[in-house]
Specification:
four-stranded mixed beta sheet; two-stranded antiparallel sheet; mainly alpha
Length: 612
C-alpha cells in the first residue's frame, strides 16, 4: 500500500470527492432527455408507492428489487419523489458505485493511488447516467461494483460466494439480462477453479465452447446484420480466450460443492423472498413471467440501436491469437515477460486515457483483450493465489456484462463497459510493477533513498488531482450550468435546460393544469404528471404504448372517456416508438381532433368535449 501519511490520503480523497461531486451536480441538473425515461420510472415508482401491485397494475419490465429499494428510499427515508430528489439520488449512486469500484481496485493492487485513479475514471465513465436518472441501471452499477469488491475476498473468505449469490439474485430481479450474465460469469469462474474440471480437461473445454455460443443465441434475431454477427463473434472469442487463460493460469484454493451450495442457497433464498413479497402484495405469477421474462425478450425486435464499431473485427481476431500465443509460450515466460508487460501497458493506457469516456469502441476494440488481466506478472507462471479468483471473476463478468449493449447500444453500453474500467487500471498497474521489478531498472534506481519513494508517490498523487480537475472541468461545468434556463416547475427547482425547451415544458404544464383533468402523452412524457400534479389514468402509463396489450390500452381509453376534460399530448417528432394498432390508436384516429400546438407537441381532445 501507499507509504504516504494517512492524512495526505484522506485529504486527497476529500479533494477527489469534492471535484467529482461538483461535476456530478452540474451534469446531473443541466439536461432533460426528450424520451423521458426519468418520468417513466418515476411514474412506475409512484404506482408502487401507492399500493398498486407490480406487473398486474403497474406495467414495467424491471424487477422487484429496484422497486423495493425505491420504496425504502421514499417511504422509509421519506425522500420526496420529485425530479430534484431523483437526480440527487442518481448523483449519490454514481459516486457510490465509483467509490466501491475504486476500493476494489485499491485492494486488488494494494495501491491507494490505483484506487484514486479508478475512482476518477469511473465517475467520468458513468456521466451518461445523468440523462436517465431514476433508471435501474444506477442500481446495476452499484451491484456490479459491489460484486467486484466482494470477489476480492477470494475463496479464502467463507462469505464470498454467499454474498456473490445474493448480489446475483438482486441483479436478476433488477434487470434480468444483467443477472443472467452475472450468473454465467460466476458459474464459469467456479468451473475454472473446480477439481472436477481440472481432472477432466475435455469436459471444461466442451463447457467453455458451449458457453461461448450464448452471444449468437442471444442475438439470433439480428444475426443477418453484419454489426450483430461481428459483435456476437467478438464476445464469443473473448469468452473463449478469457476462459482458457483463466483455466490455465488458475491458482489458490479450489472450489468445491460447498462453495456452489453457498452461492446457490443465497441466490435461491433471496429470489424466493422477492417472489413471496410480490405474491403477498397482489402480483400474480403469470404477470411476473410476462413482465420479467417474456416481455423483455421481445424488446430486441421492438427497439434496438445497433452497435457499430467499424474495423473492430481485427481486434477480436488479434486478441484470440494473442491468447493462444500466451498459452503456447507459457513455459518460456521469462523470455516474454517484458512483451506481456508492454501489452498490458498499452492496453491500460488506451483504456484509461483514450477510451475512458467512450462506450461503444471499448466493446469492439478492448473487450476481447480482457484476458490480459489474467496473465501473471511473476515468473512462477501463475496468478498470485490471493487474487486469482477475484481477477478471474472480474474478467469474465466484464466480458459477459458487455452483452448489455444488445439490443440498445446507448446507455446500456455504459454499464457494459463499467467493469472494464477496473480491468484497464489493474493492467496498467501490473505493467508498471513488472517494469519496476526489472533488475536493470532496480540498479539504476538503487541510489534512491527511502524518502524518495513517498516523494514520488506524492508527485503521482498531485498528478492525479490535476488529471481529475482537467477531466471534470468543474468551473467550466458550473458556467455552462448557470447559462441554462431554470425549468421552474414543480419539484424541479435545481434543474436547468435550454431556454426553448424550458419554455415549451412550462407552456405545456400550464395548459394542461388549466384545461384538463386527465391526460396521456404519446410517446411518453410522464414527467408532465409530476409537473402538473396530475395522476395518470392508469399505471400502465409507466411504459410506452408500444408495449401495452389491447386490454391495457382499453383501460386507458375507458378512463379518458370517463374524464370531464381529457386530453392527449402527442410529440410530432423525436418519438422512439410507433404505437401499434389497438383501442388507443383507434380512439385517436376516430374520435380526436387537434386543439393546440405547443413547440413540437400536438394536443388532442375527444370530439365530444366542448371547444376551448
Amino acid at each position: 500500500m501507499s507509504r504516504l501519511p494517512i492524512w495526505v490520503l484522506g485529504l486527497a480523497l476529500l479533494t477527489f470527492l469534492t471535484i467529482a461531486g461538483f461535476n456530478t451536480y452540474t451534469t446531473g441538473f443541466s439536461s432533460f432527455a426528450n424520451y423521458d425515461d426519468e418520468g417513466i420510472m418515476m411514474i412506475s415508482v409512484q404506482g408502487h408507492l401507492q399500493g398498486r401491485s407490480l406487473y398486474d397494475q403497474v406495467l414495467t419490465y424491471y424487477g422487484p428489487f429496484y422497486y423495493f429499494y425505491e420504496w425504502f428510499i421514499h417511504a422509509v427515508l421519506n425522500l420526496p419523489l420529485t425530479h430534484d430528489a431523483t437526480r440527487a439520488i442518481c448523483i449519490f449512486h454514481r459516486l457510490l458505485a465509483s467509490s466501491i469500484l475504486a476500493l476494489a481496485g485499491g485492494l486488488m493492487t494494494r495501491s491507494a493511488l490505483t484506487g484514486f485513479f479508478v475512482f476518477i475514471q469511473a465517475v467520468l465513465h458513468l456521466t451518461p447516467l445523468t440523462r436517465e436518472p431514476s433508471h435501474p441501471q444506477e442500481l446495476v452499477a452499484v451491484l456490479l461494483a459491489l460484486a467486484a469488491l466482494v470477489a476480492v475476498g477470494g475463496l479464502q473468505r467463507r462469505s464470498t460466494l454467499a454474498l456473490l449469490g445474493a448480489i446475483g439474485a438482486a441483479a436478476i430481479f433488477t434487470k434480468i439480462n444483467v443477472g443472467a450474465f452475472f450468473g454465467l460469469a460466476l458459474a464459469l469462474t467456479l468451473c475454472c477453479h473446480a477439481p472436477l474440471f481440472q481432472s477432466r480437461r475435455a469436459l471444461f473445454w466442451g463447457l467453455l465452447a458451449l458457453a461461448s455460443l450464448v452471444p449468437f443465441v442471444l442475438m439470433r434475431p439480428h444475426l443477418d446484420q453484419i454489426w450483430a454477427s461481428i459483435y456476437a463473434a467478438q464476445v464469443c472469442g473473448a469468452i473463449l480466450a478469457a476462459g482458457a487463460i483463466a483455466y490455465t493460469f488458475r491458482s489458490g484454493p479450489n472450489t468445491g460443492w460447498a462453495h456452489v451450495i453457498q452461492a446457490g442457497t443465497a441466490f435461491a433464498t433471496l429470489s424466493a423472498f422477492f417472489v413471496v413479497v410480490l405474491l403477498l402484495t397482489g402480483s400474480s405469477l403469470s404477470s411476473m413471467l410476462e413482465n420479467l421474462v417474456i416481455g423483455p425478450s421481445r424488446l430486441g425486435n421492438l427497439f434496438f440501436i445497433p452497435l457499430r464499431v467499424p474495423g473492430c473485427y481485427w481486434s477480436g481476431a488479434a486478441a484470440l491469437l494473442g491468447a493462444m500465443a500466451a498459452l503456447a509460450f507459457r513455459s518460456r515466460y521469462d523470455r516474454w515477460k517484458l512483451v506481456i508487460a508492454a501489452a498490458k501497458a498499452i492496453y491500460g493506457l488506451v483504456g484509461t486515457f483514450l477510451l475512458v469516456s467512450s462506450y461503444k469502441e471499448p466493446l469492439g476494440y478492448l473487450l476481447p483483450w480482457s484476458w490480459l488481466v489474467l496473465i501473471p506478472t511473476k515468473a512462477d507462471n501463475s496468478l498470485e493465489s490471493a487474487g486469482s479468483f477475484a481477477r478471474t471473476f472480474l474478467c469474465l463478468a466484464a466480458i459477459w456484462e458487455g452483452l448489455q449493449a444488445y439490443p440498445s447500444a446507448e446507455t446500456q453500453a455504459v454499464l457494459g463497459t463499467f467493469l472494464p474500467v477496473l480491468v484497464y487500471s489493474i493492467c496498467l498497474h501490473d505493467a508498471l510493477k513488472s517494469f519496476g521489478d526489472e533488475p536493470w531498472i532496480i540498479r539504476h534506481l538503487g541510489t534512491l533513498t527511502p524518502r524518495a519513494v513517498p516523494l514520488g508517490e506524492a508527485l503521482v498523487l498531485a498528478g492525479l488531482v490535476y488529471l481529475c480537475e482537467d477531466w471534470f472541468k468543474p468551473f467550466s461545468g458550473w458556467r455552462s450550468y448557470k447559462s441554462l434556463a431554470p425549468l421552474g416547475l414543480r419539484g424541479s427547482d435545481h434543474l436547468r435546460v435550454p431556454a426553448e425547451q424550458a419554455e415549451t415544458y412550462r407552456a405545456l404544464t400550464q395548459y394542461l393544469e388549466s384545461q384538463s383533468d386527465l391526460f396521456i402523452t404519446i410517446p411518453g412524457l410522464n414527467s408532465l404528471y409530476f409537473w402538473t400534479g396530475t395522476k395518470p389514468p392508469t399505471y400502465f402509463n409507466a411504459s410506452e404504448v408500444a408495449v401495452m396489450n389491447d386490454s391495457q390500452q382499453a383501460q386507458i381509453v375507458a378512463a379518458l372517456q370517463d374524464a370531464k376534460r381529457p386530453l392527449i399530448v402527442m410529440r410530432t417528432r423525436g418519438g422512439r416508438f410507433a404505437y401499434p394498432n389497438g383501442p388507443l390508436r383507434r380512439l385517436i384516429r376516430e374520435q380526436c381532433r387537434e386543439v393546440k400546438k405547443i413547440g413540437s407537441f400536438r394536443i388532442l381532445e375527444l370530439e365530444r368535449t366542448t371547444t376551448r
